[in-house]
Amino acid sequence: MTTSTRDRVPGTSPTRPRLPGPLALGLVRTRVELLGFVRERDAMIFIFAYPLIMMAIFASVFGGEDQVFDIGAGPVEINFAQYFLPGMVATGVMLSSFQTMAISIAVERDDGTLKRLRATPLPALSYFLGKVGQVLLVSVVQTAALIALASLAFDVPLPDGDRWWTFAWVFALGTASGAVCGVAFSTVPRSGRSASAVVTPVVLVLQFISGVFFPYPSLPDWMQQVAQLFPLKWLAQGMRSVFLPDEFAAVETTGEWQHLLVATVLALWLILGLVIGVRTFRWRRRDDG
């Protein structure tokens, strides 16, 4: 039974419907972000398919040649596709989290989307939950497709046992740190049109110095030192501990997988990205006050 205007007690205001909580709105916002991601077909193809294409190209070119490593006990050969997979998983996570977040937020700020959203009852937390949800779902699907391609097309053995737990926390920390760093970096481009030109070179440089395209031990010492300052190197190292045999830990700089250090560096970048993002995030363009 509904209450009409005539039946309402004089002097009282109509009851306003309660808005859903931030988490519920975040789930709705995740769906909106996914639809927007799918509709941007050029960006979706690059971000989603890039690791798959690079994996197929490199594994096909070098698939017949085993990579030789000297791990102390003598040279050891391993299928190049197996060695290449961890780096591509890591770079896929970075593309789906850091690059997607930095570019999309810069574009939305430039075209006024953020300004309009800020004027609605949508909580800021729900907006960011939607972004993180979209990043997480895309990263999961992309990584699953990459692992399936490596396993089915190039006979890369899958990890077993506790290695999947290692994969889970490395993936979660890498995705989270990449997402919040993307939010923080989104303030660097001066406009939405320049966002890709500013963000993409950063991603490419980090890929080359972090052992994604080339074996990390073969890189110059100074390049390894620079790479250790950024999360992609540690994300790739964590993934190598998942997909490579245990004896390959000897190939790393310290001769160990350094799981504690991997988790620490990724967590520090997560905290640093949160602090910078909170202090520098803007809902309006620079010329809009």
From TrEMBL:
Superkingdom field: Bacteria
A matching Pfam family: ABC2_membrane
Location of this chain's protein in the cell: Cell membrane; Membrane
Transmembrane feature ranges: 43-63, 83-107, 128-154, 166-185, 197-216, 257-278
Primary location: membrane
Keyword Repressor: no
Residue stretches making up the ABC transmembrane type-2 domain: 42-284
Family: Belongs to the ABC-2 integral membrane protein family.
Name of the protein described by the UniProt record: Transport permease protein
